Automatic annotation (TrEMBL):
Keywords of the record: DNA-binding, Transcription, Transcription regulation
Domain (HTH marR-type): residue spans on this chain: 42-171
The family this protein is said to belong to: Belongs to the SarZ family.
Lineage: Bacteria, Pseudomonadati, Pseudomonadota, Alphaproteobacteria, Hyphomicrobiales
PANTHER family attached to this UniProt entry: TRANSCRIPTIONAL REGULATOR, MARR, TRANSCRIPTIONAL REPRESSOR OF EMRAB OPERON
SMART domains registered for this protein in UniProt: HTH_MARR (SM00347)
Protein name: HTH-type transcriptional regulator SarZ
Amino acid sequence: MDELMRTALYEGRAGRDESELTGLSEDDPLFPKLWHNPCWLSFRLNYLALRFNNPVYSLIQQKLGLLRPEFVVLWSLYLSNELTLTEVVRSSGFPKNTLSRAINRLDSLGMIQRELDMTDQRRIAMKLTDKGREAVESVEAIMMKHERTMLECLSPAERLNLSEILTKLAVASEGWPQQLSLDPEPSESEDVTS
């Protein structure tokens, strides 16, 4: 195993015994993805996101007839009251063209309203209508219950630590590259002499 792989694996397990943390046997197909994976962070984040998103957005599509980007717009407006398309893109990570289509559909369904800012005519603000707010509220408790189920294995202190760590990563992600090169140059933090 080369040094880069060894370092990545060490960082992922932080020097702890894997079986002590998970209770998984080495025969479990999840075990190598958790403990032999040089991209340990991305695997864990994606795996957990899918365990939340798949059941939640399946329910939303069945109950409300909305696709994930459409609900992302509603949820963003529910949390912020008023946003522009650019602000929803920035706070959700979805591409502008995907959210633009979602906004057009939500507008046609009467779930959002768009208003031209009279002081800055380039700015179009969006707000939820009563219909949009009712849609979000009809699934909010189910979403919260599912998230609480996911967090049951953590103590209150661990939940607080997890929240703080993930918040720090989310804020830092603004500076991460949006496209990768096939021939990456070492970052300034990497030791190029080894």
